[in-house]
Amino acid sequence: MIELYFAATPNGLKAKLFLEEAGLPYVVHPVSLSQGEQFEPAFLAISPNNKIPAIVDNEPAGGGAPLSMFESGAILLYLADKIGRFVPTDTHGRAEVLQWLFWQVAGLGPMAGQIGHFNVYAPEKVPYAIDRYTRETARLYGVLNRRLADREFIAGAFSIADIACYPWIVPHQAHGQDLADFPHVARWFETISARPATLRTYAGVENAYTPKQALSEEERRVLFGQGAPR
């Protein structure tokens, strides 16, 4: 049984999407980020960076004590290796998938996250930041569009590269992007959207970039105002 510490952000949804695709049994532990549950000692023992997702694998390969993991990219790679699916075992195929997994972790996620923040959550409009991150996110969408021009999925066969990237394309409108400008991404997006595991993952999930109401000052402090831990 996998224990998933989860909130419905793109990174949280990456882990949930993998578990649904894999058919692994799992239980969800919701983490209320706006209430500061990510700073509780029990959670920090699993995820010292106070971020979701995190998992505890109670039956790690080879046996032994339960194994906890944080960082969404590491979780995807760990689980793919555990079940022997969604990441190739041959050198070239594995390298292909890992490049695009790291591309998402280092590029698409951070840049899209920044424009999502400045478009939706920032208390005031910052034109330079909005322009900067909209342009960089568009560049990254363009990179993905070129990649998908001659293949169905990012690394050929469906893999953790697709699982990692898809949740970061779902809120494309909040990123200031129109998928009509990226036809190969749009085709890939529709293909993954229709997969049964994707439908299960997103059933009842609210878009993290469309909050129902304005954040309170306390919620804003908890979500965005943390400095170095003491």
Please give a quick description of this structure.
The protein has helices at residues 10-22, 41-44, 72-83, 91-121, 127-147, 160-169, 183-193, 196-202, 217-224; strands at residues 2-6, 26-30, 54-57, 67-70.
- Within the CATH hierarchy, at the fold level, what is the topology of the largest domain? Glutathione S-transferase Yfyf (Class Pi), Chain A, domain 2
**Annotation, overall tally of beta strands:** 4
Radius of gyration: 18 Å
In DSSP terms, counting alpha (H) and pi (I) runs of 4 or more, how many helices?
Answer: 9
Largest sheet: 4 strands, mixed
- Poorly predicted parts: none
Helix content: 40-55%
Question: Alpha-carbon distance between the termini?
Answer: 34 Å
Average pLDDT across residues? 93
Query: How are strands sequenced across the largest beta sheet?
Result: 2-1-3-4
Q: Return the CATH class of the largest domain.
A: Mainly Alpha
Task: Tell me the strand percentage band.
Answer: 5-15%
How many separate domains make up the residues?
2
User: Could you say which structural class the secondary elements and strand pairing correspond to?
Assistant: alpha+beta
Order of helices and strands: EHEHEEHHHHHHH
